[in-house]
Design a protein that fits this description.
The protein is built from five helices and 21 strands. It is an alpha+beta fold.
Amino acid sequence: MFGTTKTVLRSFVASRKFYAAVLIAAAITVLTTSTLLSIKTVTVTVDGETTFTAKTLNRTVGDFIVRQNIQVGEHDSVSPPIAANIKKHQTIAISRAFPVNIIIGTEATEIQTTEKILSNVLEENGIIMGEMDIVNPSLDSVVSKDTVITITKVTEDMVSVTEPVPYQTISTPNSDLARGKTKVITEGINGTKELMYKVIYHDGTEASRELCGERVIQEPQNKVEQYGTQYYELSSRGGRVIRDSSTIENPAEQLNYKQALTCTATAYDLSFNSCGKNPGDPYYGVAASGMRISRGVVAVDPRVIPMGSKLYIESLDSWPDYGFAIAGDKGGAIKGNKVDLFMESSSEVRQFGRRKVKVYLLDN
């Protein structure tokens, strides 16, 4: 009886050891299987190029980077993020930051970025473009190391400018006034006008302006003057006879002259386009001889017609004779047999154009 009991005990102990061994083996199998299932394959790329592939039990991207001793700079980007869990077949992409220079107006700044498109670089750095601002290169450009991005701040404003309106000179003949003399009846007064410009500024400096409108604030008062037509000619019996050139049908036929020249004639007035001066200039309306410019003052080449010469200018076409004049001015474009005749208005100057005339140098 006792022997039977010992046999049973031995069988029980043996079975317990067997089951324990089975349980341990099962646990090892489960642990091994779990470990094998936890191993992930990770591929690392830097700036788009594969650097290595490794097996890992690390749970997060950050753990893997630390475990593999991968250096990540402050401005470098990691995808997926460092806190993300690693998947079974995971690619970790690292983009290295590179320097880009941004110039806004006169201020230059170097930044570190991993963005490849210019607009994304600006957005990343909180740089907001105005509607009129100019960026170079364009917003969709690809940037790389040491790219220089220039932003020009563009603004516009409406600017009011006041300018003079030059008065015109109206001349009428006076037979009681000696030829070459003038008499002012009414002084001329310049008017004023307001011009409105749209001005564009680049970084605070004017880049362009466009005239948008104008209005006359004060009309000019025209100058009214008389010019003398009285002259003398020698009579057949000697002495001098007073003549009014405005009443003679063919005055050129009755002249006493010492020389006659066929010349090319142009015309000028007191506008800036003709004389290059504006009212207010100390030399505005003053001829090279120092006399005031009025009808009858003619610009000549002094090598051909001496300054101060008294002249009569006859038209060689249908245009009326210019009449009696004085060589009182000269000009850089008046060379050789050329004369430039003063006229009262720009419209008369344009109508006259360029014509052939005969210039008589009168006897004193």
